[in-house]
Amino acid sequence: MDPVPLFLCLRDRCFFVAGREVDCPLDHWPQISLTTRRRFLTGSALAAAGSIVPRAFGHSMPRAAPPAIPNLDPNSLARFVDPLPLPLIAKPVGVGPVPGESGVRVPLYRVAMRAIRTKLHRDLPPTNLWSYGGQVPGVTFDTQSGQGLAVEWVNELPAKHFLPIDHTLHGAERGKPEGRGVVHLHGGKTPPESDGYPEDWYPPGQSRTYYYPNRQEAALLWYHDHSMGINRLNIYAGLLGLHVIRDGTEQALHLPDGKFEIPLTLFDRDLRPDGQLSYPVSADPARPWVPEAFGEAQLVNGKIFPYLDVEPRKYRFRVLNAANGRFYRLSMTPQVQMHQIGCDQGLLAAPIATATVQLAPGERADVVVDFAPHRGAQILLVSDALVLMQFRVGAAPVVDPSHLPAALRSVPRMAESSAVATRRLTLDEQTNRVAESEGMLLNKTPWHMPVTERPVLGSTEIWELVNLTDDVHPIHLHMVKFQILDRRRFDGFQYMTAGTLRYTGPVMPPDASEMGWKDTVRVNAKTVTRIIVPFEGYPGRYVWHCHILEHEDNEMMRPYEVVAAGS
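Above: the chain's sequence. Below: its structure in token form.
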């Protein structure tokens, strides 16, 4: 008898035995998680156990061509020799007008996109990067809810890109300026003319001034490039930064603040031995796009293996997954209990005690850690088997006036009955004759087709995201926040062949860490994920897309338009 084929699906924590899926509970996967979606990278506890099939259902991916010079092995670098850098806080240069509001003036900032050279590790030569404000991550905006601001984004980038452009992708055709850019405030309730629409890019030598009203609750947002067709390259080059909104509700909680509130921006990169970025390309020089970019070097605030000296007291960590495609599952070793207090759009209703924090690309987490029980210890922040950074806890006791209250803020759940429409939208993949991916789609519709989603301003809708692919996709909607209703697995083959939705599992509520307001949702493979979305803010054209940047750049992005009532 032939052996029964056994496949491991790292994305969905399940086994495939002879083509049949068998669920595996999360607690049986202490070392296997959504670190990546198609392969478990070098350094994994399973890497030595043999190859792992990247596709549960037989689809293959176009292989990246091996680099001309082998990439740097980050494990060859000394660990914990660089202190964790903290981004500078942006300072206004004056005041500027508010569009459409005569006589109203707000703080005006001026931030340049420019090329820099900076050391990612003590023992590496300086790396060429693109930056906002001369650093990667870029300068941080520390702002107050209800207090708007304007930013002049100045493009001082070089005329030629230093990463490989695929000119066959829509929006990246030959003849367009290679140094183009446009900025999106991810999570911002922003007027459409300031949202960073992907086709609103502008070349070196020009600037755009965007208005950010900040009419939303306290949250950790982030800003990044959104240029059509090269977004993945511009962010990989370094065009990303943080935007913090604070409010009185949050400040009244007396959470750790000041030097005890630490941003942690996580992303991965491949590097050449000379310290320069290495971005993967396909074996076809005419079509260099690859479906995903996973780097072996893990960076925290722009450094490889940094350390942070901490006092034995509570700290608040504002964590962002800014990777192109990597999923992180964070924990501390030796085991330290964390309390997650917030997600994408601000505070949860109450703290959640947890040993792990999972983040898809684009997601954020607000985490409080009390180092008091660990005086004198050295603690590692890891993502499964990947080491990210070290905390060095002081030995002397200190006074800690901060609090971790039992209740944080009211987060009432939206009733499904408040929705005036339900949209069923599919996540699709295009493959060639040998089942290699040629790109992803939303609702089987490429970018340039007419707008099909036109919600009414002030209304609420339910979006059913039907994932027909074998991957997890983090889906982000611009301008709005939403709540996750539930997830439910279904028979993908029957849906694709007969068009009928047959559920194969029970309704699964959101994770406890997802019970706050979100702007990016993890849509699991062969699963219907339902979100409820109040379309509050501004009329105009926005986008929704997968936040795996290689997918977004190759058609997994669609415009949608918020229309005024009665229009």
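Residues 1-60 have pLDDT under 50 and may be disordered.
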